[in-house]
DNA sequence: GAGAACATGTAAAGCGTTACATGATTAA
DNA sequence: TTAATCATGTAACGCTTTACATGTTCTC
């Protein structure tokens, strides 16, 4: 259950409404932990009921801003430092590669090269994003500091995938 | 819905029972597409009902071996070549890095170094696995050909993650 | 005879996606 | 005044995990 920790963590930076949090999920967090409105609003309600966050302000149109409570921050820190993350690498692309024996070699090679093309496009989009993000606008926030580290992972991942797809394509005989 | 395609693809290599398929999921496919008994048996039933696989043999203890039908193979090929895979990178580790501002820098650095340690351990396990797999036992099967490409992705991914975790740790000031 | 491995499932609960539903406020 | 944006949710469905449940066959 990581969504709740993501929410507490974001609220720690600054109080926000469900609507605000959705913007963040769509923009910066989408590649790392996608979430939908339904999920966010439901989880906020649960977190408030559990006393891990609390309403700090109300605005127009029923807007409610939340901030983490002390209990919420304690739970976040506990999860960050003491709970070992478990990665379930579920990759549709790798699954397909695994099953590529079902099509002929020309098509398999085409698949690997299509992976390469998509990765190059992703890489271009990431570079554009990196250039466009106004980290200074955030000042010296923690999100800026650690956000850069996360984005660097994405960049390295894509570089690696591009090289791998070329290697893989070359490995399939004509 | 990739599980059904995974199952058809595995059955294409050789007919198998749900029990056999679970062995495969636990051994070779776990890192790419984890699945549980409940899921596998349920999906086999659905696939059989949809006419994409069929029982080819029955054995002791109610054992039923399945093989894909022509319709199943067509569906698999269609999915492999014509449906663009969509990746939802959901990484608990990266989410934590993103939120690392909630703990002090020493702990954040410790976290990055713990990622490094875990990655090194994973890498050692992968190398051991690579050495232990008897690809020749499978002969020149497609799983051997493409399985190697998938494993190489894993290896490169781990190498990348190790380097990145060192880079990230160094980037956090004392 | 006992224990391991083989073999198949059901049930419940939680997580995630998509579609539906409603209304208020602001800016052009 | 009208369109965009702000703002919150509910409902239904499917996928995934965990726990429960049962019985057979083989090997030592």
UniProtKB/TrEMBL annotation, chains A, B:
<feature type="domain" description="Transcription regulator PadR N-terminal">
    <location>
        <begin position="8"/>
        <end position="77"/>
    </location>
</feature>
<dbReference type="InterPro" id="IPR005149">
    <property type="entry name" value="Tscrpt_reg_PadR_N"/>
</dbReference>
<dbReference type="InterPro" id="IPR036388">
    <property type="entry name" value="WH-like_DNA-bd_sf"/>
</dbReference>
<dbReference type="InterPro" id="IPR018309">
    <property type="entry name" value="Tscrpt_reg_PadR_C"/>
</dbReference>
<dbReference type="Pfam" id="PF10400">
    <property type="entry name" value="Vir_act_alpha_C"/>
</dbReference>
<protein>
    <submittedName>
        <fullName>PadR family transcriptional regulator</fullName>
    </submittedName>
</protein>
<dbReference type="Pfam" id="PF03551">
    <property type="entry name" value="PadR"/>
</dbReference>
<dbReference type="InterPro" id="IPR036390">
    <property type="entry name" value="WH_DNA-bd_sf"/>
</dbReference>
<feature type="domain" description="Transcription regulator PadR C-terminal">
    <location>
        <begin position="90"/>
        <end position="168"/>
    </location>
</feature>
